[in-house]
Amino acid sequence: MSVALIQPLVVRTVAVSDPDDLLARLPGAAPYAWIRNGEGLVGWGEAARAMVPPGPGRFDWARGWLSSLFAGALIRDEVGMPGSGPVAFGSFTFDADAPGTVLVVPRVVLARRDGRAWLTTIGDNAFDLARPPVEPGRIRYGDGTLTAPQWEHRVARAVRRIRDGGLDKVVLARDLTAVADRDIDIRVLLGRLARSYPECYTFSVDGLVGATPELLVRHTGQAVESLVLAGTTPRGSGPADDATRAAALYASKKDRHEHACAVASVREALTPLCSALHVPEEPELLVLPNVQHLASRVTGRLSDGASVLDVVAAMHPTAAVGGTPTGTALGLIRELEGMDRGGYSGPVGWIDAHGDGEWGIALRCAYISGRHARLFAGCGIMAGSDPATELAEAQAKLRVMQYALEG
Ligand SMILES: C=C(O[C@@H]1C=C(C(=O)O)C=C[C@H]1O)C(=O)O
Questions:
Q1: Domain containing 270: what range?
Q2: Known active-site residue 358
Q3: What is the ipTM of this complex?
Q4: Would you call the peptide bond into 317 cis, given omega within 30 degrees of 0 as the criterion?
Q5: Tens of pLDDT along 57-99?
Q6: Set 39, 46, 199, 214: catalytic member
Q7: Where in the numbering of this chain does the Chorismate-utilising enzyme C-terminal domain appear (predicted)?
Q8: Domain count of the chain?
Q9: For residue 259, what are the contacts with CB-CB under 8 A and spacing of at least 6?
Q10: What is the domain-level CATH number for residue 62?
Protein backbone atom coordinates (compact mmCIF):
# COMPACT_ATOMS: atom_id res chain seq x y z
CA MET A 1 0.00 0.00 0.00
CA SER A 2 0.99 3.65 0.12
CA VAL A 3 3.17 2.91 3.17
CA ALA A 4 5.62 0.88 1.10
CA LEU A 5 6.06 3.69 -1.41
CA ILE A 6 6.96 6.37 1.11
CA GLN A 7 10.60 7.42 1.22
CA PRO A 8 12.03 7.57 4.74
CA LEU A 9 11.20 10.93 6.31
CA VAL A 10 14.23 13.09 7.03
CA VAL A 11 13.17 15.13 10.05
CA ARG A 12 14.95 17.96 11.81
CA THR A 13 13.75 19.90 14.88
CA VAL A 14 15.57 23.02 16.02
CA ALA A 15 14.87 25.52 18.81
CA VAL A 16 13.74 28.92 17.49
CA SER A 17 13.16 32.31 19.07
CA ASP A 18 9.61 33.06 20.21
CA PRO A 19 7.40 33.06 17.09
CA ASP A 20 4.80 35.31 18.81
CA ASP A 21 1.37 34.54 17.24
CA LEU A 22 1.71 30.99 15.85
CA LEU A 23 -1.39 31.32 13.69
CA ALA A 24 -0.02 34.47 12.04
CA ARG A 25 2.92 32.38 10.76
CA LEU A 26 0.73 30.11 8.62
CA PRO A 27 1.67 30.81 4.99
CA GLY A 28 -1.39 29.38 3.21
CA ALA A 29 -5.06 28.53 3.43
CA ALA A 30 -4.79 24.76 4.17
CA PRO A 31 -3.25 24.76 7.64
CA TYR A 32 -2.96 22.31 10.50
CA ALA A 33 -3.43 23.73 13.99
CA TRP A 34 -3.86 22.83 17.63
CA ILE A 35 -3.70 25.94 19.83
CA ARG A 36 -4.80 26.80 23.37
CA ASN A 37 -3.91 30.01 25.19
CA GLY A 38 -1.36 30.81 22.46
CA GLU A 39 0.53 27.52 22.93
CA GLY A 40 0.48 24.46 20.70
CA LEU A 41 1.39 23.51 17.16
CA VAL A 42 0.70 24.82 13.68
CA GLY A 43 1.74 23.01 10.51
CA TRP A 44 1.63 23.21 6.76
CA GLY A 45 2.56 21.17 3.72
CA GLU A 46 2.37 17.39 3.61
CA ALA A 47 5.22 14.96 4.16
CA ALA A 48 2.86 11.98 4.47
CA ARG A 49 -0.88 11.34 4.45
CA ALA A 50 -3.07 8.31 5.16
CA MET A 51 -6.77 7.94 4.53
CA VAL A 52 -7.55 5.41 7.25
CA PRO A 53 -9.92 2.63 6.09
CA PRO A 54 -13.25 2.62 8.00
CA GLY A 55 -14.12 -0.26 10.30
CA PRO A 56 -13.55 -1.52 13.81
CA GLY A 57 -9.80 -1.92 13.21
CA ARG A 58 -9.20 1.70 12.23
CA PHE A 59 -7.21 2.69 15.33
CA ASP A 60 -4.95 -0.37 14.91
CA TRP A 61 -4.46 0.49 11.25
CA ALA A 62 -3.57 4.09 12.17
CA ARG A 63 -1.16 2.92 14.83
CA GLY A 64 0.54 0.52 12.39
CA TRP A 65 0.87 3.19 9.71
CA LEU A 66 2.32 5.69 12.15
CA SER A 67 4.76 3.28 13.75
CA SER A 68 6.22 2.12 10.43
CA LEU A 69 6.43 5.72 9.20
CA PHE A 70 8.10 7.03 12.35
CA ALA A 71 10.31 3.95 12.86
CA GLY A 72 11.73 4.42 9.35
CA ALA A 73 12.32 8.16 9.77
CA LEU A 74 15.76 9.75 10.18
CA ILE A 75 15.11 12.09 13.10
CA ARG A 76 17.39 14.78 14.46
CA ASP A 77 15.50 16.40 17.34
CA GLU A 78 17.44 19.03 19.27
CA VAL A 79 14.46 19.92 21.50
CA GLY A 80 13.10 16.68 22.96
CA MET A 81 9.67 17.94 24.09
CA PRO A 82 6.22 16.38 23.56
CA GLY A 83 5.39 17.55 20.03
CA SER A 84 8.99 17.95 18.81
CA GLY A 85 10.30 15.62 16.11
CA PRO A 86 7.74 14.42 13.54
CA VAL A 87 4.05 14.75 14.42
CA ALA A 88 0.88 13.58 12.74
CA PHE A 89 -2.35 15.56 12.94
CA GLY A 90 -5.48 13.45 12.72
CA SER A 91 -9.24 13.50 12.57
CA PHE A 92 -11.24 10.30 13.19
CA THR A 93 -14.86 10.13 12.09
CA PHE A 94 -17.43 9.76 14.89
CA ASP A 95 -18.80 6.59 13.32
CA ALA A 96 -16.18 3.84 12.93
CA ASP A 97 -17.84 2.72 9.68
CA ALA A 98 -17.89 6.16 8.02
CA PRO A 99 -15.17 7.20 5.57
CA GLY A 100 -13.10 10.34 6.16
CA THR A 101 -10.58 9.44 8.87
CA VAL A 102 -7.29 11.07 8.02
CA LEU A 103 -3.75 11.34 9.36
CA VAL A 104 -1.32 13.91 7.98
CA VAL A 105 2.31 14.57 8.83
CA PRO A 106 2.88 18.22 7.86
CA ARG A 107 6.14 19.16 6.12
CA VAL A 108 6.68 22.04 8.55
CA VAL A 109 5.55 22.36 12.18
CA LEU A 110 6.07 25.43 14.33
CA ALA A 111 5.33 25.00 18.02
CA ARG A 112 5.49 26.63 21.43
CA ARG A 113 5.11 25.04 24.84
CA ASP A 114 6.15 26.12 28.34
CA GLY A 115 8.12 29.09 27.06
CA ARG A 116 10.09 27.08 24.46
CA ALA A 117 9.59 27.25 20.71
CA TRP A 118 10.76 24.98 17.92
CA LEU A 119 10.54 24.35 14.21
CA THR A 120 10.36 20.91 12.65
CA THR A 121 10.99 20.48 8.94
CA ILE A 122 10.81 17.33 6.86
CA GLY A 123 12.78 16.85 3.66
CA ASP A 124 14.15 19.75 1.65
CA ASN A 125 13.64 22.98 3.47
CA ALA A 126 11.67 24.64 0.69
CA PHE A 127 10.87 28.30 1.13
CA ASP A 128 7.15 28.91 1.75
CA LEU A 129 5.76 32.02 0.12
CA ALA A 130 3.10 33.52 2.36
CA ARG A 131 -0.22 34.67 1.00
CA PRO A 132 -2.15 37.13 3.20
CA PRO A 133 -5.48 35.78 4.51
CA VAL A 134 -8.62 36.92 2.67
CA GLU A 135 -11.97 37.60 4.39
CA PRO A 136 -14.79 35.31 3.18
CA GLY A 137 -17.31 38.18 2.79
CA ARG A 138 -21.04 37.77 3.37
CA ILE A 139 -22.26 34.43 4.76
CA ARG A 140 -25.65 32.90 3.86
CA TYR A 141 -27.02 30.02 5.93
CA GLY A 142 -29.27 27.16 4.94
CA ASP A 143 -30.84 24.16 6.64
CA GLY A 144 -28.67 21.09 6.91
CA THR A 145 -30.15 17.59 6.99
CA LEU A 146 -33.19 18.63 9.08
CA THR A 147 -35.00 21.90 9.67
CA ALA A 148 -35.12 23.14 13.26
CA PRO A 149 -38.73 21.91 13.83
CA GLN A 150 -37.90 18.52 12.30
CA TRP A 151 -34.93 18.21 14.64
CA GLU A 152 -37.14 19.09 17.65
CA HIS A 153 -39.43 16.23 16.61
CA ARG A 154 -36.47 13.85 16.57
CA VAL A 155 -35.50 15.04 20.05
CA ALA A 156 -39.06 14.35 21.23
CA ARG A 157 -38.81 10.83 19.77
CA ALA A 158 -35.52 10.26 21.58
CA VAL A 159 -37.10 11.41 24.87
CA ARG A 160 -39.95 8.91 24.39
CA ARG A 161 -37.45 6.14 23.70
CA ILE A 162 -35.57 7.00 26.89
CA ARG A 163 -38.78 7.16 28.97
CA ASP A 164 -39.77 3.76 27.55
CA GLY A 165 -36.63 2.43 29.19
CA GLY A 166 -34.54 1.77 26.07
CA LEU A 167 -31.57 3.83 27.27
CA ASP A 168 -30.43 6.59 29.68
CA LYS A 169 -28.91 9.17 27.38
CA VAL A 170 -28.37 9.89 23.69
CA VAL A 171 -26.57 12.83 22.09
CA LEU A 172 -28.41 14.18 19.05
CA ALA A 173 -26.74 16.61 16.67
CA ARG A 174 -27.81 18.78 13.77
CA ASP A 175 -26.00 20.47 10.92
CA LEU A 176 -26.32 23.83 9.22
CA THR A 177 -24.90 24.85 5.85
CA ALA A 178 -23.23 28.14 4.99
CA VAL A 179 -22.00 29.71 1.75
CA ALA A 180 -19.60 32.66 1.62
CA ASP A 181 -19.00 35.23 -1.13
CA ARG A 182 -15.41 34.03 -1.51
CA ASP A 183 -13.39 30.92 -0.73
CA ILE A 184 -13.10 30.56 3.04
CA ASP A 185 -9.51 31.01 4.22
CA ILE A 186 -9.25 28.80 7.29
CA ARG A 187 -6.61 31.10 8.83
CA VAL A 188 -9.23 33.84 9.22
CA LEU A 189 -11.46 31.45 11.20
CA LEU A 190 -8.59 30.16 13.34
CA GLY A 191 -7.53 33.70 14.29
CA ARG A 192 -11.05 34.60 15.43
CA LEU A 193 -11.56 31.34 17.31
CA ALA A 194 -8.23 31.55 19.15
CA ARG A 195 -8.86 35.18 20.14
CA SER A 196 -12.43 34.65 21.36
CA TYR A 197 -12.09 31.13 22.80
CA PRO A 198 -8.54 31.08 24.23
CA GLU A 199 -9.50 28.39 26.80
CA CYS A 200 -10.65 26.04 24.02
CA TYR A 201 -8.49 24.02 21.63
CA THR A 202 -8.57 25.78 18.28
CA PHE A 203 -7.97 23.09 15.69
CA SER A 204 -7.68 22.59 11.95
CA VAL A 205 -7.18 19.21 10.30
CA ASP A 206 -7.87 18.66 6.61
CA GLY A 207 -10.82 21.07 6.36
CA LEU A 208 -12.34 20.35 9.80
CA VAL A 209 -12.01 23.55 11.84
CA GLY A 210 -13.26 24.51 15.27
CA ALA A 211 -12.62 25.47 18.88
CA THR A 212 -13.47 22.62 21.23
CA PRO A 213 -13.59 22.92 25.00
CA GLU A 214 -13.51 19.14 25.45
CA LEU A 215 -10.11 17.46 25.91
CA LEU A 216 -10.50 13.73 25.24
CA VAL A 217 -6.97 12.97 26.40
CA ARG A 218 -3.60 14.61 26.86
CA HIS A 219 -0.75 12.07 27.08
CA THR A 220 2.68 13.14 28.35
CA GLY A 221 4.89 10.16 29.23
CA GLN A 222 2.80 8.04 31.61
CA ALA A 223 0.45 10.90 32.63
CA VAL A 224 -3.01 11.23 31.12
CA GLU A 225 -5.62 13.90 31.59
CA SER A 226 -9.16 14.36 30.28
CA LEU A 227 -11.74 17.13 30.66
CA VAL A 228 -15.23 15.64 30.59
CA LEU A 229 -18.07 18.01 29.70
CA ALA A 230 -21.81 17.35 29.76
CA GLY A 231 -24.65 19.46 31.14
CA THR A 232 -24.96 22.89 29.55
CA THR A 233 -26.72 26.20 29.99
CA PRO A 234 -26.41 29.28 27.75
CA ARG A 235 -24.67 32.41 29.13
CA GLY A 236 -26.95 34.90 30.83
CA SER A 237 -27.55 38.58 30.16
CA GLY A 238 -25.06 39.66 32.85
CA PRO A 239 -23.16 38.39 35.92
CA ALA A 240 -26.29 37.95 38.07
CA ASP A 241 -28.14 36.05 35.36
CA ASP A 242 -25.02 33.92 34.69
CA ALA A 243 -24.86 33.00 38.37
CA THR A 244 -28.58 32.12 38.50
CA ARG A 245 -28.21 29.88 35.44
CA ALA A 246 -25.07 28.25 36.84
CA ALA A 247 -26.84 27.51 40.14
CA ALA A 248 -29.80 26.01 38.24
CA LEU A 249 -27.39 23.86 36.20
CA TYR A 250 -25.76 22.54 39.37
CA ALA A 251 -29.14 21.84 40.93
CA SER A 252 -30.62 20.21 37.81
CA LYS A 253 -31.08 16.45 38.33
CA LYS A 254 -31.24 16.01 34.56
CA ASP A 255 -27.91 17.78 33.93
CA ARG A 256 -26.16 16.11 36.85
CA HIS A 257 -27.27 12.68 35.62
CA GLU A 258 -26.23 13.57 32.07
CA HIS A 259 -22.81 14.58 33.39
CA ALA A 260 -22.50 11.45 35.54
CA CYS A 261 -23.13 9.28 32.44
CA ALA A 262 -20.25 11.01 30.60
CA VAL A 263 -17.86 10.71 33.57
CA ALA A 264 -18.76 7.03 34.06
CA SER A 265 -17.92 6.25 30.42
CA VAL A 266 -14.50 7.90 30.78
CA ARG A 267 -13.82 6.11 34.06
CA GLU A 268 -14.75 2.75 32.50
CA ALA A 269 -12.49 3.36 29.49
CA LEU A 270 -9.48 4.52 31.50
CA THR A 271 -9.59 2.12 34.46
CA PRO A 272 -8.12 -0.90 32.57
CA LEU A 273 -5.28 1.26 31.18
CA CYS A 274 -4.29 3.09 34.37
CA SER A 275 -2.40 2.20 37.56
CA ALA A 276 -3.84 5.32 39.21
CA LEU A 277 -6.93 7.33 38.28
CA HIS A 278 -8.45 10.38 39.93
CA VAL A 279 -12.07 11.24 39.18
CA PRO A 280 -13.48 14.28 41.03
CA GLU A 281 -16.59 13.69 43.16
CA GLU A 282 -18.33 16.85 42.00
CA PRO A 283 -18.18 18.69 38.66
CA GLU A 284 -16.83 22.24 38.32
CA LEU A 285 -18.23 24.95 36.08
CA LEU A 286 -16.54 25.82 32.77
CA VAL A 287 -17.68 29.27 31.63
CA LEU A 288 -17.22 29.98 27.92
CA PRO A 289 -18.31 33.08 25.96
CA ASN A 290 -21.44 31.32 24.63
CA VAL A 291 -22.32 28.58 27.16
CA GLN A 292 -21.52 27.21 30.63
CA HIS A 293 -20.76 23.51 31.10
CA LEU A 294 -20.49 21.08 33.99
CA ALA A 295 -16.86 19.90 33.80
CA SER A 296 -14.81 17.12 35.45
CA ARG A 297 -11.02 16.98 35.13
CA VAL A 298 -9.93 13.32 35.23
CA THR A 299 -6.23 12.54 35.70
CA GLY A 300 -4.32 9.24 35.74
CA ARG A 301 -1.10 7.34 35.24
CA LEU A 302 -0.86 4.68 32.55
CA SER A 303 0.25 1.26 33.73
CA ASP A 304 2.23 0.49 30.55
CA GLY A 305 3.57 2.20 27.45
CA ALA A 306 0.22 2.86 25.76
CA SER A 307 0.37 5.68 23.19
CA VAL A 308 -2.14 8.51 23.08
CA LEU A 309 -3.91 6.75 20.20
CA ASP A 310 -4.35 3.60 22.32
CA VAL A 311 -6.08 5.76 24.91
CA VAL A 312 -8.19 7.53 22.28
CA ALA A 313 -9.23 4.12 20.88
CA ALA A 314 -10.33 2.97 24.35
CA MET A 315 -12.28 6.16 25.10
CA HIS A 316 -14.15 6.97 21.90
CA PRO A 317 -17.12 7.46 21.81
CA THR A 318 -17.63 8.75 25.35
CA ALA A 319 -21.16 9.37 26.56
CA ALA A 320 -20.53 13.11 26.08
CA VAL A 321 -21.06 12.57 22.33
CA GLY A 322 -22.66 9.09 22.08
CA GLY A 323 -24.83 8.14 25.02
CA THR A 324 -25.53 5.43 27.61
CA PRO A 325 -25.43 2.54 26.95
CA THR A 326 -23.10 3.22 24.03
CA GLY A 327 -24.32 0.60 21.55
CA THR A 328 -28.02 1.46 21.93
CA ALA A 329 -27.24 5.18 21.72
CA LEU A 330 -25.21 4.75 18.51
CA GLY A 331 -28.12 2.86 16.91
CA LEU A 332 -30.56 5.62 17.88
CA ILE A 333 -28.21 8.34 16.58
CA ARG A 334 -28.10 6.58 13.18
CA GLU A 335 -31.87 6.23 13.17
CA LEU A 336 -32.81 9.76 14.28
CA GLU A 337 -30.12 12.13 13.03
CA GLY A 338 -30.25 10.86 9.45
CA MET A 339 -26.85 12.37 8.65
CA ASP A 340 -23.18 11.43 8.53
CA ARG A 341 -21.39 13.34 11.32
CA GLY A 342 -18.03 12.96 9.57
CA GLY A 343 -15.31 14.06 11.98
CA TYR A 344 -17.71 16.14 14.12
CA SER A 345 -17.74 14.65 17.65
CA GLY A 346 -14.86 12.35 16.66
CA PRO A 347 -11.32 12.51 18.04
CA VAL A 348 -9.13 15.30 16.63
CA GLY A 349 -5.55 16.12 17.58
CA TRP A 350 -1.91 15.19 17.16
CA ILE A 351 0.56 12.46 18.09
CA ASP A 352 4.37 12.47 18.08
CA ALA A 353 6.89 9.65 17.50
CA HIS A 354 7.01 8.87 21.27
CA GLY A 355 3.23 8.35 21.46
CA ASP A 356 2.63 11.62 23.31
CA GLY A 357 -0.09 13.92 22.09
CA GLU A 358 -3.32 15.78 22.68
CA TRP A 359 -6.70 14.78 21.30
CA GLY A 360 -9.95 16.65 21.71
CA ILE A 361 -13.51 15.81 20.79
CA ALA A 362 -14.25 17.77 17.60
CA LEU A 363 -17.08 20.03 18.80
CA ARG A 364 -18.01 23.65 17.89
CA CYS A 365 -16.63 22.95 14.42
CA ALA A 366 -17.36 22.95 10.70
CA TYR A 367 -16.10 21.36 7.52
CA ILE A 368 -14.75 24.01 5.17
CA SER A 369 -14.50 23.43 1.42
CA GLY A 370 -14.10 26.33 -0.99
CA ARG A 371 -16.95 28.80 -0.34
CA HIS A 372 -18.93 26.19 1.61
CA ALA A 373 -19.11 25.30 5.28
CA ARG A 374 -21.11 22.65 7.16
CA LEU A 375 -21.53 23.45 10.86
CA PHE A 376 -22.48 20.95 13.59
CA ALA A 377 -23.78 21.01 17.15
CA GLY A 378 -25.47 18.52 19.43
CA CYS A 379 -26.94 18.06 22.90
CA GLY A 380 -27.25 15.28 25.42
CA ILE A 381 -30.90 14.14 25.50
CA MET A 382 -32.27 12.72 28.77
CA ALA A 383 -35.70 11.60 29.97
CA GLY A 384 -36.35 15.16 31.21
CA SER A 385 -35.24 16.97 28.03
CA ASP A 386 -37.42 19.64 26.45
CA PRO A 387 -36.98 19.84 22.64
CA ALA A 388 -37.17 23.65 22.47
CA THR A 389 -34.52 24.02 25.21
CA GLU A 390 -32.26 21.54 23.44
CA LEU A 391 -32.68 23.43 20.15
CA ALA A 392 -31.69 26.68 21.89
CA GLU A 393 -28.64 24.93 23.37
CA ALA A 394 -27.60 23.59 19.94
CA GLN A 395 -28.02 27.09 18.51
CA ALA A 396 -25.82 28.56 21.25
CA LYS A 397 -23.15 25.98 20.36
CA LEU A 398 -23.45 26.76 16.62
CA ARG A 399 -22.70 30.42 17.35
CA VAL A 400 -19.01 29.59 17.81
CA MET A 401 -18.54 28.78 14.13
CA GLN A 402 -21.04 31.40 12.95
CA TYR A 403 -18.87 33.97 14.70
CA ALA A 404 -15.71 32.44 13.18
CA LEU A 405 -17.24 32.83 9.70
CA GLU A 406 -18.80 36.26 10.16
CA GLY A 407 -16.45 37.98 12.63
C1 LIG B 1 -22.35 17.57 21.49
C2 LIG B 1 -21.82 18.74 21.84
O3 LIG B 1 -21.40 19.02 23.09
C4 LIG B 1 -21.39 18.02 24.10
C5 LIG B 1 -22.67 17.99 24.81
C6 LIG B 1 -22.88 18.74 25.94
C7 LIG B 1 -24.25 18.79 26.59
O8 LIG B 1 -25.19 18.27 26.02
O9 LIG B 1 -24.40 19.40 27.65
C10 LIG B 1 -21.82 19.45 26.51
C11 LIG B 1 -20.57 19.35 26.03
C12 LIG B 1 -20.24 18.37 25.00
O13 LIG B 1 -19.79 17.20 25.60
C14 LIG B 1 -21.62 19.83 20.83
O15 LIG B 1 -21.05 20.87 21.18
O16 LIG B 1 -21.99 19.65 19.66
A1: 2-406
A2: no
A3: 0.98
A4: yes
A5: 999 999 999 999 999 999 999 999 999 999 999 999 999 999 9
A6: 214
A7: 149-397
A8: 1
A9: 228, 230, 231, 283, 294, 296
A10: 3.60.120.10
